[in-house]
Amino acid sequence: MMEVHRRDWLFGAGATPAEKLLAHGTAALGTLALAVANRHAGWAWWQWLLAVSLVWDLVGGVVADGLDTAKSFYHSPLPARTPKRIRFVHHPVGFTGLHIQPILVGFLFPGGSWWWGMIWYGWALAGAVAVEAAPERLQRPIALATVVAGAMVSPLLSGPAGLNWLPVVLLLKLVLAHGVLEGKGAPQRATVACTTEAGRD
């Protein structure tokens, strides 16, 4: 039976100090880049606070959600008596649905709009649903297609200045890093490698 701890929701149980440091270090680097790029943006203090929170959650979250420990936690069954609200957050689609950051950014930052936020929120949610519904073999390709298509489309849609990175990073975190359960293919790859090597003898 899996016991849910606060640390599980961030990194999954058993993440090493090096893995946690990598996630936090990436978030710190993203925060520095945000500060340098937007030093003349004229944001209010609360906009800066929100922007830094977004970087820490999304940029750091790409690494954190890509850890084997996080994937194992979020893609493992919960105990039978787990409350419905916990099951919702634990499910990849429910987890994605809670990430309303693009909607908030669209409303609260200069150059944003309600439709910009809704497009990227809907894009991430649709990607998460598609990945969850797909056979395991297609999950990673679908996630990659969702991310790369978003990367190509995002420059065409005018959004908040200084936060143009958000759509791609959001998709990387929620659809690819969080949504795809990886690692099960390792035994098959090992078998193929052994077979190939044997064929050379």
How would you characterize the overall build of this protein?
The chain is mostly helical. Helices cover 71% and strands 0% of the residues. The protein has eleven helices and no strands. Helix 8 runs parallel beside helix 10. The protein starts with 5 loop residues before the first helix and ends with a helix. Mean pLDDT is 86; it is low at 1-7 and 184-201.
Q: Short description, anyone?
A:
With about 200 residues, the protein is mainly alpha-helical. Helices cover about 70% and strands about 0% of the residues.
Q: Which strand-content bin applies to the residues?
A: under 5%
Low-confidence stretches: 1-7, 184-201
Name the structural class.
mainly alpha
Any idea what the shape is? Answer: globular
Report the mean per-residue pLDDT as an integer. 86
Approximate helicity band? over 70%
Order of helices and strands: HHHHHHHHHHH
Number of strands: 0
Helical segment count: 11
List keywords for this structure.
mainly alpha; disordered N terminus
